[in-house]
Design goal:
Layout (H helix, E strand, L loop, with lengths): L18 H11 L1 H8 L2 H6 L7 H4 L1 H28 L4 H19 L19 E2 L2 E2 H26 L11 H25 L6 H20 L16 H24 L4 H22 L6 H22 L6 H20 L26
Antiparallel strand pairs: 1-2
């Protein structure tokens, strides 16, 4: 046998992807699942606002309420994310659009902004109720929706699927369907409140809400993309500081609102105090977050934001802690992302950083 003839090496078999990698690939092909897990998953189910115990105690009612939540939150996140990408705007526009979404849900759909007797509002339905609007409740619940219903889910989508950052997901038909689902769900909930709870805020309030929504959308459309841009190139402090900053958000809003009512402070003063608190937290973050290489810091911020509401959700359902499974899944998700961005130091493809530009291997548009 001729020693010079060497048999070709056997073909190299690529290693089998790890379970997290396979899950990520599946979610990249089904981004709607990830959207639903983030919103309403965080703001409704981790927080206990919609109890996961219903999945065991009353499955039909739970599924009905789940459909209502999905019809509000998922189109809201998709449409606002799509607006940010297609309009080439920044997070300032997301905040404005998040405010518009909060008015759609808490104003038009559920009327908690106007109904003093709404169950979730409590004493804030009367403290600061003026011209048909519960202003102290409004500023707090709008902030919660901006952060937990819209901004955190959109950011988590960006870092969970970095190759799709800046890539449109919705076709024209998909956008129309998302708007239609949101409008239909809002109309159904308005009817439930009107005929089931016997409450209607009145035509002037309804028209005023619609005008505010349109104004916020137009303002978001024309807001410069660098509005509310971070002040520094890279983060100026450790991720732990961001975690504490996020952790302080929800409890501090509740404390300021509660103290204002307990001490008998004028409602207008409490309203302004909450607004000042929110602006202070926002600008504190802008001074330290940096424009790039900040993924671990913003992950810590997200964990800090979610931790208090997850704790409240667990305590409120401790007798039947179904939510503990969701808490563990969320902890695994954040730990996985932390390892990816902190240890492997992955980088988002450059084309994915600019809104509206396609990135390689981006998921296809979400079509209806």
């Amino acid at each position: 046998m001729d020693a010079s003839v060497v048999a070709p090496p056997p073909p190299r078999i690529p290693p089998r992807p790890s379970p997290p990698a396979r899950l990520r690939r599946w979610l990249a092909r089904h981004p709607l699942v990830l959207v639903a897990l983030f919103s309403p998953g965080i703001v409704e189910y981790l927080s206990g606002s919609s109890a996961l115990t219903g999945l065991v105690l009353a499955p039909p009612l739970f599924l009905l309420l789940l459909a209502g939540n999905l019809g509000l939150y998922v189109p809201g996140v998709l449409l606002i994310r799509e607006a940010r990408v297609r309009w080439h705007t920044g997070w300032g526009s997301v905040l404005l659009l998040g405010t518009a979404y909060a008015i759609v849900e808490e104003g038009l759909a559920l009327s908690t902004l106007f109904n003093s007797h709404a169950g979730v509002v409590g004493s804030l339905g009367f403290y600061g109720h003026f011209l048909g609007v519960s202003w102290v409740w409004l500023v707090g619940v709008v902030a919660v929706h901006i952060v937990f219903s819209i901004s955190v889910p959109i950011y988590l989508l960006d870092i969970a699927l970095p190759e799709s950052r800046g890539v449109p997901w919705l076709s024209r038909r998909g956008t129309a369907v998302a708007l239609g689902v949101l409008a239909l769900d809002t109309s159904v909930l308005m009817a439930v409140v009107a005929f089931g709870l016997r409450f209607f805020a009145g035509l002037p309030i309804l028209l005023g809400s619609l005008a505010a929504i349109v104004g916020l959308v137009l303002a978001a459309r024309w807001l410069p993309g660098d509005f509310l841009a971070p002040r520094t190139e890279r983060p100026t402090t450790r991720p732990l500081v961001f975690g504490f900053l996020g952790f302080s958000f929800f409890p501090s809003v509740l404390v300021v609102e509660a103290l204002g009512g307990t001490w008998g402070a004028p409602a207008a003063l409490t309203f302004l105090a909450v607004v000042a608190l929110l602006i202070g937290l926002l600008f504190a973050m802008l001074r330290i977050v940096g424009r790039r290489d900040n993924e671990p810091h913003l992950l810590a911020l997200a964990v800090g934001l979610i931790a208090p509401i997850a704790f409240v959700g667990l305590v409120s359902q401790i007798s039947l802690p179904v939510v503990l499974g969701a808490d563990l899944a969320a902890a695994w998700f954040f730990l996985h992302l932390w390892r990816r961005y902190r240890r492997e130091r992955i980088r988002v493809p450059e084309g994915a950083l600019t809104p509206g530009r396609s990135a390689p291997n981006a998921p296809p548009p979400v079509r209806a």
